[in-house]
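Annex B.
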Amino acid sequence: MTEASILFLRACLVVLASPIYLLSFLGIWEPFCKKIFFPFFLEKFFAIHEKKTNKPKQELFRNLPDFKSPSGELKLLEIGTGCGANFQFYPPGCKVTCTDINPDFQQGLSKSMDKNKHVHYERFLVAPGEDLHQVPTGSMDAVVRTWVLCSVHSVNGTLKEVLRVLRPGGAFYFLEHVAADRSSWKHFWQQVWYPTWKLVFNGCCLTREIWNNLEQANFSELNLRHITIALPWMPVQPHIIGYAVK
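MET7A protein: predicted structure tokens.
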């Protein structure tokens, strides 16, 4: 009965979003989404999201200075930088390399750079999380990813690259929306929304249990907790937050 209900409600969403499905079929939606809609949506959405996550992020990034290299520098790689919503939480003087698969985020990123002069920006790389070959092995003291593992093609492949670019003793910081408890109504609605949400929001997957991937990765230490971020009527309320040490 539950599976039948999910399929029926998914079909209803397809009908409601039929113009987008039509544009996708014609090959128009994907380039429009990447270039215009998704950067615009993220900039507006994160203005709301940041108010909800400000305190958790302050706590999350509080110990970033502990991972400075012996020289006293803190070299940080942010994967999927987007509009630069995390820059305000980075310690003064840290050297940030930004990456994103979508070059159209650079305009919003420039605005964030202007607001956060305490951070030194090294460069911007157009690269997927699974292929960071432009970043040398063991060259980073910290890697940050927030709201990115939901949309990569391979979570395990991305974590493998994170481990490669981190120096021994470096840290990986994360804040990701994840699948709700499988017995909950939240999970039911995540499954209903899944196909349409993934199409509309540039490959974002609602039902990934990313904590399993982190637990199975070869980190020497994992600090992870589950939290709920109050985003009414949104299927992305369950989150994991924490950091892992190489």
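The helical segments are 2-16, 18-25, 29-60, 106-115, 155-165, 185-200, 210-216. The CA atoms of residues 151 and 204 lie 4 Å apart. Further annotation is deferred to the next reporting cycle.
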